Amino acid sequence: MSVAFRRESDEEHKEPRFELPIPAGPNLVTDRGLALVGERIAALETARDAAEGKDRDRITRDLRYWQTRHATAQLTPAPTDGSAGFGSVVDILLAGKPRTIAIVGDDEADPKADRLAFSAPLARALIGAEAGETVAFAGREDAVTVVAVR
């Protein structure tokens, strides 16, 4: 029989299961972000104990990601000099509309809730700004007015 017609197993024809990608750069976290990572690990450990088969494999993969993120976390306090930075909450006017942006770590980010990762373009534009300043964003020099930094 030709080797072309022989199949060793079904496993060799399945899509490979990749690890979850770790964001490049430092793993900066706020107090809240570190607590969220810990909660996520606890929830996944509980789910893994109850899961079987492929679900267990998926949960174990997710657990490896979160354990790595916990191990590499760098707890970073917000700046105390009145400038916007990692961990700050910034009140801004963007195109004349008020928004409150929290600058947080990658795993804590939730753009719909205005919690932006420090690597996001708007967060990068705000870092270093102080109340009363205007900063460039999206090609406009006066796109964002910083109202307050907390």
The global form is elongated
- What's the mean pLDDT score? 91
Number of helices: 3
Question: Total strand count, please?
Answer: 7
Taking the alpha carbons of the first and last residues, their distance comes to 74 Å
Structural class: alpha/beta
Radius of gyration: 22 Å
Helix content: 25-40%
- Name the poorly predicted regions: none
Order of helices and strands: EHHEEEEHEE
- Largest beta-sheet characterization: 5 strands, mixed
Strand content: 15-25%
List the strand order in the largest sheet: 5-4-3-7-6
Quick description:
The protein is α/β, with parallel strands linked by helices and 150 residues long. The protein is built from three helices and seven strands, in the order E-H-H-E-E-E-E-H-E-E. Helix 1 runs antiparallel to helix 2.
Question: What layout of secondary structure does this protein have?
Answer:
Blueprint: E1 28-29, H1 31-50, H2 53-71, E2 74-75, E3 89-94, E4 97-104, E5 115-117, H3 121-126, E6 134-137, E7 140-149
Parallel strand pairs: 1-2, 4-5
Antiparallel strand pairs: 3-4, 3-7, 6-7
Helix pairs in contact: 1-2
Can you characterise this structure?
The protein is α/β, with parallel strands linked by helices and 150 residues long. It is 30% helix and 23% strand. The protein has 3 helices and 7 strands. A 5-stranded mixed beta sheet has the order 5-4-3-7-6. Helix 1 runs antiparallel to helix 2. The termini are far apart. The mean pLDDT is 91.
